[in-house]
């Protein structure tokens, strides 16, 4: 026992120097020692000036030295508290400790200095008045911060937002440490102050360019575009937005464009207290837009005290074209592409083509075309055999110009995944894209889908959750996490997540359909069918949701209704691009294995994008022992 205590004592002795070393390093990191040194040197110099010049030469009262010393000590204490707590982010509730303490230190310093001044003047009554006033102000400040703490609590804060008639979604849990994020920010769409409403594309494009630059910083959590733009046009308090998105800072601004002149304002705001950490106004020529973007981005980095790696600095300030006309056309292209609507994809591609005509070496414009075609293939706006080869061609042209375009790599990854079934090539493309742009929620989502297809469900689910952390108000991110729960046989968890998606976009047919599917999987057939039937109406007979209804009818034993859906799908196939995989699911649920396999072979032939889920699709589990099924898996290299 004694020997054991001796070992512990020696161990503790060894730990002390290391502990002191860490403490000393912490003092250096927070610049405490430098601050002390500066105040000692500067304070001594100020005291000498007061002593030898003001007191000795100009005959100020000797008490002036005491007042000066009190002010120096107060300033020192306030500065040390701010430096010590300011970088930790520690709070009492939602109130930062330094924001609470520093004003109290200033108040106490002023009160003591005032009392000393009153003593010098020979006044006694003011001493009590000063103490009472200082005490009242201190109590008032503490009460104010306590109320602020209470008001910002989730229940009360949400209630206030609701009272304004603009209730933001409930706060989402933040995973900063888990993902290595040290700071967090949301970039709101810049307000259009121009007379021309068509300049919206420019304002949104400016915000999106800043978002895209900041996402390349590993240690910074940047809320994705969908969630950032969720609050556009809504009179929502900055602190409510910050709380809903779980970020520490908000960047907002405005743009006034008149001819070739620009006036851009930008403000970086702390969510905790609403204080402006930085603000600036840029009155420049339109040709200076690239410089302005860099200045705003680097100002954010500097004020968040982020230390960039060499490659991060290069990525953040990288310019993809020097041609202003090409840049402007590219912004228009992205504005339309972000809607994910078929006709708008076509409009976006036309703008990207015009941008390339202005600047043939504009790799980012080729990447935009590649992403448009790959998404048109994914959403069945074009047949896969038409969309994905065009996406590949544009992506390779983009990478030939600039091999560091993350969007081009991710578009190529989609081609490899959904069309080539080249899993090694897909993984390589997605990994390159993520290395270049580690916090892009769209690339993370695509990689999550890849992992799920490969049977790496847990890894894929973690990536899907990371995408949701970056884009908490995104309908698709919430649906994706719900879909993962469905794939892993957890219908109740899926339903819970899908209901969160409905909070964001009430009545959205995809969410309603998937909720109905969770009920079907839980054997609640009548309830599930009602939900899916409602989703079909809401979606105006969307092919995928209609097929989902056919599958649900078959599972619920309503054969007649299921066969009617098959007829409806056949009719739609005459007007739209065929979706043979959907037929296969319904036939499998009806127990008609040969018909189901016939349709799966058609899906293989036409590269129906849904066939990539073949190995993990539980609705087709009844076919897994069939030789024709296994042959398809073998051809797709999914076995």
Q: Care to describe what's here?
A:
By secondary structure, the protein is α/β, with parallel strands linked by helices. The protein folds into four domains: 31-151; 176-319, Rossmann fold (3-Layer(aba) Sandwich); 325-555, Serine Threonine Protein Phosphatase 5, Tetratricopeptide repeat; 556-639. The chain is built from 29 helices and eight strands. The strands form two sheets. Strands 3, 4, 5, 6, 7 and 8 form a six-stranded mixed sheet that branches. The protein has a two-stranded antiparallel ribbon with strand order 1-2. Strand 1 (91-92) and strand 2 form a beta hairpin. The longest helix has 28 residues, at 2-29.
Briefly, what is this?
With 639 residues, the protein is an alpha/beta fold. It has 29 helices and 8 strands.
Features:
alpha/beta, Rossmann fold, 4 domains, 29 helices, Serine Threonine Protein Phosphatase 5, Tetratricopeptide repeat, about 650 residues, 6-stranded mixed β-sheet
């Amino acid at each position: 026992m004694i020997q054991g205590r001796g070992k512990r004592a020696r161990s503790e002795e060894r730990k002390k120097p290391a502990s002191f070393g860490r403490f000393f390093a912490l003092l250096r990191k927070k610049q405490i020692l430098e601050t002390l040194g500066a105040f000692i040197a500067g304070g001594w110099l100020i005291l000498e000036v007061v002593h030898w010049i003001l007191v000795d030469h100009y005959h100020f009262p000797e008490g002036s030295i005491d007042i000066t010393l009190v002010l120096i000590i107060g300033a020192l204490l306030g500065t040390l508290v701010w430096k010590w707590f300011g970088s930790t982010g520690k709070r009492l509730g939602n109130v930062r400790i330094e924001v609470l303490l520093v004003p109290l230190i200033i108040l106490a310093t002023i009160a003591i200095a005032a009392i000393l001044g009153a003593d010098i003047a020979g006044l006694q009554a003011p001493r009590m008045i000063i103490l009472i006033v200082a005490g009242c102000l201190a109590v008032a400040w503490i009460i104010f911060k306590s109320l602020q703490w209470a008001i910002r609590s989730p229940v009360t804060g949400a209630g206030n937002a609701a009272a304004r008639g603009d209730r933001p979604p409930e706060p989402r849990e933040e995973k900063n440490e888990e993902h290595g994020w040290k700071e967090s920010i949301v970039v709101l769409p810049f307000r259009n102050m121009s007379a021309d409403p068509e300049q919206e594309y420019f304002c949104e494009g400016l915000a999106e360019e800043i978002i895209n630059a900041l996402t390349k910083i590993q240690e910074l959590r940047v809320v994705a575009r969908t969630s950032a733009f969720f609050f556009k046009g809504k009179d929502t308090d900055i602190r409510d937005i910050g709380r809903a998105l779980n970020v520490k800072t908000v960047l907002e601004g405005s743009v006034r464009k008149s001819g070739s002149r620009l006036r851009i304002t930008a403000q970086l705001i702390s969510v905790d207290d609403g204080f402006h950490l930085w603000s600036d106004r840029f009155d420049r020529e339109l040709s200076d837009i690239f410089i302005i973007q860099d200045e705003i981005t680097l100002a954010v980095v500097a004020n968040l005290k982020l230390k960039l790696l060499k490659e991060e600095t290069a990525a953040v300030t990288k310019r993809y074209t020097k041609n202003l006309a090409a840049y402007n056309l590219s912004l228009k292209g992205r504005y339309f592409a972000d809607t994910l609507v078929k006709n708008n994809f076509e409009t976006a591609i036309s703008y990207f083509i015009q941008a390339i005509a202005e600047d043939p070496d504009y790799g980012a414009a080729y990447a935009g075309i590649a992403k448009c075609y790959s998404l048109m293939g994914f959403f069945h706006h074009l047949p896969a055999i038409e969309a994905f080869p065009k996406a590949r061609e544009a992506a390779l042209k983009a990478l030939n110009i600039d091999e560091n375009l993350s969007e081009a790599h991710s578009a190529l990854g989609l081609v490899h995944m959904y069309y080539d079934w080249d899993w090694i090539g897909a993984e390589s493309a997605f990994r390159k894209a993520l290395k270049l742009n580690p916090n892009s929620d769209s690339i993370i989502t695509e990689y999550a889908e890849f992992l799920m297809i490969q049977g790496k469900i847990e890894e894929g689910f973690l990536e899907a959750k990371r995408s949701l952390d970056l884009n908490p108000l995104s309908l698709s991110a919430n649906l994706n996490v719900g879909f993962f729960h469905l794939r892993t046989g957890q219908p109740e968890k899926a339903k819970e997540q899908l209901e969160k998606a409905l909070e964001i976009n009430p009545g959205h047919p995809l969410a309603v359909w998937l909720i109905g599917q969770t009920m079907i999987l839980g054997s609640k057939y009548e309830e599930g069918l009602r939900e899916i039937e409602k989703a079909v109406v809401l979606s105006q007979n969307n092919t995928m949701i209609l097929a989902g209804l056919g599958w649900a009818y078959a599972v619920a034993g309503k054969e007649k209704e299921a066969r009617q859906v098959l007829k409806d799908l056949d009719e739609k196939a005459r007007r739209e691009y065929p979706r043979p995989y959907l037929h296969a699911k319904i036939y499998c649920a009806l127990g008609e294995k040969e018909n189901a396999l016939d349709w799966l072979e058609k899906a293989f032939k036409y590269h129906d994008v849904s066939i990539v889920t073949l190995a993990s699709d539980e609705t087709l589990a009844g076919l897994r022992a069939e030789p024709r099924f296994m042959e398809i898996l073998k051809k797709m290299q999914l076995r």
